[in-house]
Amino acid sequence: MGNRVDDVLIIGGGLQGCAIGLFLARSGWTVTIVDKAVPGRHASGVNAGGLRLLMRDVREYPLSLRAMEMWRSLESIVGYAPAQASEVRLGFSQIALALDDAEMQWVHARHQEMLRRGYTHEEFITAHELQRILPGLADSALGGLISRGDGHANPANASLAFRQAAESAGVLIHEQCALKQLNKLSSGRWSADTDHGVIEANWVINCAGAWGSQIAATLGDELPIRVLALSMMVTARMKPFIEPVVIGIDRPLSFKQSAVGSLVIGGGISGKPCLDDGTSFTIMDRMASSANATLEAFPALAGVPVLRTWTGLEGSTPDGIPYIGPSSRHEGLWHVFGFCGHGFQLAPAVGEAVAHSLVSSSLHPLLEPFNTSRFMSSTSAELQGLQQ
Ligand SMILES: Cc1cc2nc3c(=O)[nH]c(=O)nc-3n(C[C@H](O)[C@H](O)[C@H](O)COP(=O)(O)OP(=O)(O)OC[C@H]3O[C@@H](n4cnc5c(N)ncnc54)[C@H](O)[C@@H]3O)c2cc1C
User: Fold this and answer.
1) Distance, CA 300 to ligand 1 centroid (Å)?
2) What is the pLDDT of residues 131-180, one digit of tens each?
3) Cβ atoms 119, 60 nearer than 8 A
4) Are residue 259 and residue 307 in the same domain, yes or no?
5) Is residue 62 included in any domain, yes or no?
6) Which of 342, 345, 354 for a ligand 1 pocket mutation test, highest count of atoms within 8 Å of Cβ?
């Protein structure tokens, strides 16, 4: 590798890294991304593709609203053909289903709270209307919340779209290139020791997903995450019968029917993460709990063949929202990880807001809730309490 000195080195070429790189390069900054695997190999390429405002943590709402606008106009960001390939389908709705009295009480409370905050995207939906739009739904469904503008996209193609747009904008991407060590030079620049040699940059952005906490820790930044192996399964093709994405409130339920008819089932359950090997596994009894939750909501699906399962590694923070912001210890270092299973939808807005913050030298207001020092005075017992 030559003596190139970049404005920014991004560790991790998932959707967050590529989106940030894209917007920085379009602002005229020189950017290199290193990924120890292939961009999109991990969470960004294997997720469920859900694009939802529904049931978001309210602190994420403003960023998520901006992201939804950007998904809606994806063509203007990545170009016509990559946007088409990304199969963004908004307006199909996402529905949170209440199957018992406790969940129904939660639905009413959440609905009131969102209205009080001025958010009208989550509407109350009756059992009668649910039966009309969700054929095969269990009689026990009591009602729920619907976010009619939500939908989904194709995660692998969307990741590729952002990667290619970033490269077209001038971002240099090194695949199979792990960051091994970061050092601060006397000039104030960062020197990164990587599989492809030394890279110098004025800024480093840690977008290493499930590995983000490890990288932060090597620099003394304690940003705890729990590493999850989020698990999915896909069934044989069925006749099209359902358009919305259906998610559970207090049970591991999440499913949609793909364009080809197969059911894609998740629900936030974790298998076995193997961070050091860069892999993860589904676990039989946990997949069974996901299947049971699906059958509780849609009993008619018993007997549908499951074709395959898969997992993806993701970091979950103690309070359920990501770390996005400058390091409190090191100048020129940002952390952007810990998306807790819902960072696919946020990525375009994260890219735009992080790039805007660096270029303008002032934190974008949409990023204020995610500051990286929010647990600095917490004890480990308090952090565990937040995680429950
Ligand atoms: C199964 C599953 C389902 C999901 N469903 C949804 C959903 O429906 N909707 C939604 O919004 N979100 C969903 N998510 C969450 C979403 O996928 C993630 O929040 C998002 O992709 C995170 O992007 P990222 O770029 O931070 O991480 P990643 O895509 O994991 O990218 C991190 C990259 O960093 C690289 N890296 C790590 N360490 C190093 C190193 N030392 N040197 C160089 N490179 C390194 C890795 O190789 C990796 O490519 C789901 C996640 C999973 C796993």
Assistant:
1) 33
2) 999 999 999 999 999 999 999 999 999 999 999 999 999 999 999 999 99
3) no
4) yes
5) no
6) 342
